[in-house]
Amino acid sequence: MVDDHTGQGGHTGQGGSNGRDGEQPPESLLPYEAWTEAALHQVMVRALRHVADHGLPGEHHFYLTFRTDYPGVSLPTRLRAQYPEEMTIVLQHQFWDLTVDEETDVLAVSLSFGGVPSSLRVPLAAVTAFADPYVRYGLRFSVVAPADPRVEEPGGEPEPAPEPAAEPDAAPDDDATPQVVSLDAFRRRTPPKES
User: Fold this and answer.
1) For the whole prediction, is pTM greater than 0.70?
2) CATH number corresponding to 32-140
């Protein structure tokens, strides 16, 4: 396509000239950024589906980073305690049962963490980064958590937050998420040897 005003190609892309030197382009009323991210998200989905159907070709392997605190993410409690916000998995040697559900847009995979098999379910909307280091290809995504159902909707009352079930004097719950405590402050330090 040729621009009638300049005689050059009509697509300038991000950061291209708008024909007015030194001026910022006007703010777009079309969501190009969102459309671009959605298209790149589909590149990741197609790569994952290809690997689910055919396996990893050659030396290709994937790094997949996702929000562990995103609604719908399912992973073992020990992993959630270790990675409360974000986690990166590597799909290379020790993974199996990789599926991408087209209806729910959920990735499911089983991996080995420290020799322990674990199953993960990750909504694709929770993915913040996808990379194939073999070919130095990588994508970053912005993640927006879905609205909290307790948040007030127009014309409705917000649902109250659930009350804690345990009383202060109650015994600790065995299913409670373990807390990680660094013991370095309590270790005995050996005094330096005098020469």
Assistant:
1) no
2) 2.30.30.220
Indicate the residue type of 183. Answer: L
Residue in this structure with the two tokens 């697509």, named with its chain if needed: 11
Task: Tell me the C-alpha distance between 60 and 92, whole Å.
Answer: 8
As a whole number of Å, the end-to-end CA separation of the chain is 81
Q: Dump pLDDT digits (tens) for 143-173.
A: 887 765 443 333 333 333 333 333 333 333 4
**Amino acid making up residue 116:** V
Tell me the three state secondary structure of residue 8. coil
| Per-domain boundaries in the chain | 32-140
* Sheet with strand 86-91: strands edge to edge: 86-91, 62-67, 127-132, 137-140
Question: CA 32 → CA 26, 27, 45, 63, distances in Å?
Answer: 13, 11, 20, 26
- Residue 87 to residue 101: CA distance in whole angstroms: 21
